[in-house]
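Suppose you are handed a protein chain with no further information: no name, no annotation, nothing but its sequence. What can you learn? This example shows the usual starting point.
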Amino acid sequence: MKLLNYPVPELNVTLQEVSRVLQLTLSPDLYSEFKTTLEEQREVLEEAQQKITTVAAGQENWVTQQFKRGLLSCADPLPTSTALPDVLLPSKGKGFTQLGRAAALLWAAAKLYSEPHLLEGDVPMEHTQQSEVFAASRIPGKSQDEIKVYQDSLHAIIICAGGVFPVDILWRPSTGGPVSARSFLDIYNQLTQVMGQPRAEKLNDPSVICNLSALERKSWAAIREEILKQGGEAMTSLQVMESAVLALCLEDCNPPSELADILNAVRLGGGGDSPCLRYYDKVLNLVVFKDSKAGMLFDHNC
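A reasonable first move is to predict its three-dimensional structure. Written in structure tokens, the prediction is:
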């Protein structure tokens, strides 16, 4: 699908709008000073406008590209920079358990991923970000991160007290063709097996890799590079996590009562003696608490 066009606005139009807003918000003296400075700097502004026009030439989606480049160059830890939490509406189904709600969310995500028209309807959507929500990870880099999409991914990862486990939520026909969502019951049964696992030993503590993804990006990039160099099980596990459609965190506690605190619990996880179960490199994290309340955490780039 062709991206929607974002033309470079004309300088006069931009300045007229800025002037209109500032006339309403500034005192008469400050507004007069603004108009005088604007006239004095007109030539500088025209040069800047020409540079933007040259850079954006032939790029239909230059706004998004510049926005993403800036965010992906930010070295700050994701939990305090680009990780955005949201609280999902309560389920309409009665008597949902934690596993039932988790299975329903995984099935819904698989359905949307395999049948994107369910989200779009008859209105064309801009796909730059939408195409990087599912099966995408933010890979840490020394100077700039990148969003990597894994087109062949069929699994989600479940992060819980027992560790990190892959769960298949999509299937592809042996004859080829598009993927489709696995049944709710299939996904639910896999989750039941996951929750039947004992609490992880220190060696397989899921909070270790989750805490690494919460580090300052350049530090995490250096550690990740060492993991890849060493190979073995650590590298294989990392690749399974990075290539997942999404991450789903099963909390071993109920959420706080206040909305602001729930948002923090969705964004940061942990609290008290509980380990952090958020895998910030994964573009989309779903969080399901013990009482079946749920939230969503996603990277602002997407």
